[in-house]
Amino acid sequence: MSVSNDKIPTNLPILDSKNYDKWHKQMKVLFGYQDVLDMITDGITPLGKEATTAQEAKFKKKDYKALFLIHSWVDSDNFEKVGDCDSAKTTWGILEKAYAGADKAKVVRLQTHKRQLELLQMEDKETINDYVTRVTRLGNQMKSCGEAVSEQNFVSKVLRSLTPRFDNIVVAIEE
Asked: What is the mean pLDDT of residues 76-93?
């Protein structure tokens, strides 16, 4: 990840209608790195009567920083949804509802991923590493839909679906 002098990454993906899960994960890491994760989870909480103007300004600046980070990595359609929001938490919530909140869509995606995993087979000229990457990618997509698949199930799937040239290795592993 390339980082400019102000320590803000310059090559994060722009949120569009197809990459919310990856964008969401990367943005949460960025918020943590920039020390503004609390702005999207808790929002601006009252500091109390004893807070100084400087403390309030510093807190508000953190919120603006988180808001800036969100605005920087959304496409124009998503910006239209959140451009008028005045807090990072509100902005983040709108995007979560638009993409992650659609439970019915998640169920459909999960069923699609499960079916893809069932049908997945190693291709003749594919390396084991490439094949395991494909299986892992499907597992991560299932996880993002709320389904946890055990490592044992993944190993079993890989062993069952290797090409015949690996039969002797599979037998040795199983024994």
From this structure: 94
